[in-house]
């Protein structure tokens, strides 16, 4: 891989904190959708996308034995927009053909739990790319998180705030902080995928998936 040697050193925590902050999409390009009526005008744009940034958020569980009722929010990103879907049965049915479509690639970090949660909802996530395992070209044998991926590829600091990550994602009135956090997670994941592909650094198993869905050149 041509660029693996010059990018092989990951900045440490102190170095990352000194980097320029990651620039999220402008709020005007982030859409919060809480009803099927909101979703329908976006249907063509979503079903024709070949690669989507993907993530989900759930209200956290804190008590022993408590069962998660999530996901409560699904995030999808294109290169220009982020869509935050506040889940109800109608929206879940709207999204099901996209999430289960083998011809649409969904890229993100930490998708193992998402696969489990959606299976409980009767949805088999198809054609997912776990980006944390896409850094073998840099010599990383262990998974790498989104914050480190952004620092490595873009020399930017992607802030992660635990207080926001464990906030109540089932609340139908999300705060502006929650909206920005959820949008940045999925938008950054898509940018990481695009950059790895641009630099010809995607691992073979991911390239095989892209070939199967006919989007290697898209």
Automatic annotation (TrEMBL):
Coiled coil: none annotated. Pfam families: DNA_pol_A_exo1 (PF01612). Keywords: Exonuclease, Hydrolase, Magnesium, Metal-binding, Nuclease. Residues 30-201 form the 3'-5' exonuclease domain. InterPro entries: 3'-5'_exonuclease_dom, 3-5_Exonuclease_domain, RNaseH-like_sf, RNaseH_sf. GO terms for molecular function: exonuclease activity. The keyword Cell membrane does not apply. Gene3D superfamilies: Ribonuclease H-like superfamily/Ribonuclease H. This is 3'-5' exonuclease. It comes from Acinetobacter radioresistens SK82.
């Amino acid at each position: 891989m041509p660029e693996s040697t010059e990018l092989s050193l990951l900045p440490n925590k102190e170095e990352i904190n000194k980097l320029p902050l990651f620039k999220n999409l402008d709020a005007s390009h982030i859409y919060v959708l809480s009803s099927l009526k909101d979703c329908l005008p976006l249907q063509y744009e979503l079903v024709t996308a070949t690669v989507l940034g993907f993530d989900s958020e759930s209200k956290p569980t804190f008590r022993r034995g408590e069962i998660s009722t999530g996901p409560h929010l699904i995030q999808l990103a294109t290169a220009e927009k982020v869509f935050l879907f506040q889940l109800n049965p109608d929206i879940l049915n709207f999204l099901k053909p996209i999430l289960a479509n083998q011809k649409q690639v969904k890229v993100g970090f930490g998708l193992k739990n998402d696969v489990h949660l959606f299976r409980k909802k009767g949805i088999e996530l198809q054609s997912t790319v776990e980006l944390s395992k896409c850094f073998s070209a840099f010599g990383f044998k262990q998974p790498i998180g989104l914050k480190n991926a952004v620092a490595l590829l873009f020399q930017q600091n992607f802030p992660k705030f635990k207080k926001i990550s464990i906030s109540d994602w089932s609340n139908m009135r999300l705060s502006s902080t929650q909206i920005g956090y959820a949008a940045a997670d999925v938008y950054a994941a898509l940018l990481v995928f695009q950059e790895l592909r641009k630099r010809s650094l995607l691992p073979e198993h991911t390239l095989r998936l892209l070939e199967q869905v006919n989007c290697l050149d898209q």
